[in-house]
Design brief:
Length: about 160
């Protein structure tokens, strides 16, 4: 009668090979996942800025019908019928932003960042766009509604 060996588990070589394969997959997947998160955040920013721009145009048309003169609000977020969920109406200072805030700095905090629309990104950088309340223009750079500047919250905001 032939004796059968009871083989329970895996050999150490098999376990090492599985760990190597998982390590290689993780090394490829993690950077790609981070890129997807950044790309989705940029897409959301562009969508919100497009909504603000459309809202400002609607606001100006309504003022034209009511007064005969096109005008725009001091704060561009006023022109929106629905505010972004992370909009903080009580914050006007870039360094006080938290949890992916959207803010409008208004006038008077720091001349370099007056009338700035700002969004705190997950990477702790701040994307900024300039708004001109006299013309209703939102200044952007490059692709539609790409930020004029992206700065690190602590180092580059000059305390604003």
């Amino acid at each position: 009668m032939q004796h059968m060996k009871n083989k329970n588990g895996f050999t150490i070589i098999e376990l090492i090979m599985v760990m190597i394969i998982i390590g290689v997959l993780a090394a490829v997947a993690i950077p790609r996942f981070q890129d997807i998160v950044i790309e989705s955040e940029v897409a959301v920013e562009q969508r919100i800025l497009q909504t603000i721009s459309d809202g400002l145009e609607t606001y100006a048309r309504e003022r034209y019908v009511a007064n005969g003169v096109r005008s725009w609000p001091e704060n561009p977020f006023v022109a929106l019928s629905k505010l972004p969920p992370d909009y903080d109406a009580d914050n006007f200072v870039l360094t006080n932003m938290k949890d992916r805030d959207w803010i409008f700095t208004g006038n008077g905090n720091n001349e370099a960042y007056n009338n700035t629309i700002a969004h705190l990104r997950k990477s702790d950088s701040i994307a900024v766009w300039k708004y001109d309340p006299n013309t209703g223009e939102v200044e952007y750079s490059g692709a539609p509604f790409s930020p004029v500047n992206v700065l690190h919250r602590v180092n580059a905001t000059g305390g604003n």
